[in-house]
Write a structure and sequence with these properties.
The protein is built from three helices and four strands. The chain is of the alpha+beta class. A four-stranded antiparallel β-sheet has the order 2-3-1-4. The longest helix is centred in the C-terminal third of the chain and has 14 residues.
């Protein structure tokens, strides 16, 4: 979700499964008044959710935003989904900031990663 250009571009690590992910894809409206501030607050707030693992975000040149949040278990995801401040931001998003969006929630059963310079056996598929 970060719009911070100084943030290094690094994908969230591959965690030991199982865990959950929430994939939020959205097209924003033209009027983004207050979006950056609310987005930054949500990024800070989600970090306090027990079981939150991390987040990846990408924006296509055509305007599709993709945010993937990773959570240790379904309870952590539920805590985030039902957080009062997050719920208020969701309502404001539907009213002002999003032309359309889709949310997909999935249980991750396999996960692995790769970083150049690491030995291939150091990053086994899980």
């Amino acid at each position: 979700m970060s719009d911070h250009p100084e943030t290094p571009v690094v994908p969230v690590e591959a965690f030991e499964p199982p865990y959950y992910m929430a994939v939020f894809t959205a097209i924003r409206t033209q009027d983004q008044s207050g979006y950056r501030e609310t987005n930054a607050r949500m990024e800070d707030l989600v970090k306090d959710v027990p079981g939150y693992l991390g987040m990846d975000h990408a924006q296509t040149p055509g305007g599709l935003g993709i945010t993937v949040g990773y959570f240790r278990d379904a309870d952590a995801l539920t805590r985030w989904r039902t957080d009062a401040e997050h719920r208020a931001a969701q309502r404001r998003g539907r009213a002002e900031w999003y032309e359309s969006y889709t949310l997909h929630v999935a249980k991750v059963e396999r996960s692995h990663g790769f970083t150049r310079g690491q030995a291939a056996e150091a990053a086994p598929e899980r």
